[in-house]
Amino acid sequence: MLQQVRAQKQQFTVLPQQIQLLKLFHLTTLELQQRIQEELNDNPMLEETTSQDEDSPSETKDDVQDFQDEEEHQYDDTPDYKLEHNNYLSDHDLPQRPISERYDFRKDLKEQISCLLKSKTEIDLAYHLIDSVNESGMLEQPLDGLGDDYSFKTCRVVDLAEIEKMRQMVMELEPGGIGSFTISEFILFQLGKMNKKRPDVKKALFLLGNFTLHFAFTHREKLPGLLQIDEDELQIVFELIRTCRPKPITETDITGTHATVIPDFIIRREGDNFEISLYRQRSATLFINQSRTALIGKRNGAKSDSQVYLKNKLNSAQWFVAAIKQRESTMQKVMTVILELQRAYFMDGEIDQLKPMILKNVADRTGVDISTISRITCNKYADTHFGTLRLKDLFSEGIANSQGENISNRVIQSAIGEVVKNEDNRSPLTDHQLVSILSLKGFNIARRTVAKYREQLKIPAAQLRALSIS
Asked: Residue 421: CA atoms inside 13 Å, Cβ hemisphere, count?
């Protein structure tokens, strides 16, 4: 039996164009350039002006002359590959350097292990181990935890010995050592690949095979007797351990040694005033093709398929140009507010002048939603007179100091880095000692907070810093 029911409900719907606009906000300068090029290739109603004056083009030797005929083209010595290349890239717009692809070490490992294993069950277990390592290539879960996860995922009970055997196989892949549980195990793996007949390698293997790094740091005076070597030989052993990599995968391995950053904003200081501009304002170069627009309304009555197609493309082009303009105006508005909130920092770039600032502070002043502020500032950079900075680094929580003033946690991180830089290398400061020193500077924070900031600064623990004595 059919029934009709009347009910009231509230529903929030996001238009597809609004979603596309938010995606444009998130793009960097390089990504926006690629997005505009895709739109230009797809939409015949959208065109872009070049930097050169089209009314007075400059004649070059590559320009085709009016008097050239078929015979001249037939015996043209221009290579075919150059003509084909020019169909895709302009000679004036050639890329200066290749864009490096982000290195995915997990994908590389899976390809290697697939060539070594034939059984699907073994390959699935190897894939599970590879997917379980963190961004540094280390395993954070113990063997039993890995086994439970794999059994729950595949509904198959796996023996711990089988997991350990597969882990050892993964560690032998390139780069070696991926799947280690601890830094000590990874260093032992690297030492095992060296010439074990060397005395320093023997002592280093014995040291890390029988004692922890914490013991080596806290009981350094006992090591010469335990290893039956003198202080100079112990220093050589420590120097050998220092040359080993602390983790299988580093940030350099993922992003590359040289990262090219194209700024999105240019901030110039003139006395006490600042001038904010975009690196490239693309909305001024985009326009609608008027000749094709005139074709839409020529005929009366029913419109042809081509007219309907051009009409849809016209609406799309008009929206795209308006979206680019809105993106640029919103970016200018957001950057202006950030500059007002962090004016003292932008004067000289001193980290001590950085004030606590969160996304809500900028959203309240601009009248823009917090999610939009997040997209505008994500992966964006500004070129200033004191260097290129990432906008996300300007946002930080506030912590009250001994005077009751709110200061940025970036200031505390800078203080930790300065204290560690000036510490005695033979007696590195522990996190508890850093808490005491920061307290004297007016920063009352807990030890776990110090440990968190130290890890964010990529500063090793005191035990590892003790091994880097030169």
From this structure: 7
Per CATH, the number for 398-466 is 1.10.10.60
The CATH class given to the 105-171 domain equals mainly alpha
- pLDDT score for 435: 87
Segments making up each domain of the chain, as ranges: 105-171, 183-247, 265-295+305-393, 398-466
Q: What is the pLDDT of residues 379-412, one digit of tens each?
A: 899 999 888 888 988 888 777 666 667 778 788 8
CA 59 to CA 445: how far, in whole Å?
69
Comparing CA positions, the residue from 389, 392, 332, 381 lying closest to residue 359 is 392
**351: nearest Cα among 381, 385, 379, 393:** 393
- Res 277: pLDDT: 92
Element (H, E) at 300: none
Q: pTM here?
A: 0.54
Check for a shared fold between 105-171 and 398-466: yes
Our CA angle for 381, 385, 387, nearest 5°, is 50
The CA dihedral of 104, 106, 110, 116, to the nearest 10 degrees, is 110
The helices-and-strands tally (H runs, E runs) of the chain is 23, 8
* Alpha helix (H) residue ranges in 342-428: 343-348, 359-366, 370-377, 409-421
Q: What is the DSSP string of 153-208?
A: HHT----HHHHHHHHHHHHTSSSTTTTBSSHHHHHHHHHHTS-TTSHHHHHHHHHH
Instruction: Compute the distance between CA of residue 216 and CA of residue 204 in angstroms, rounded to an integer.
Output: 11
Q: What is the pLDDT of residue 336?
A: 94
Nearest-10 Cα torsion for 267, 269, 273, 278: -20
* 130-175 pLDDT per residue, tens: 988 888 888 888 888 888 888 888 888 888 888 899 889 988 888 8
Ranges of the chain with pLDDT below 70: 1, 11-15, 50-103, 213-218, 251-260, 297-303, 400-404, 463-470
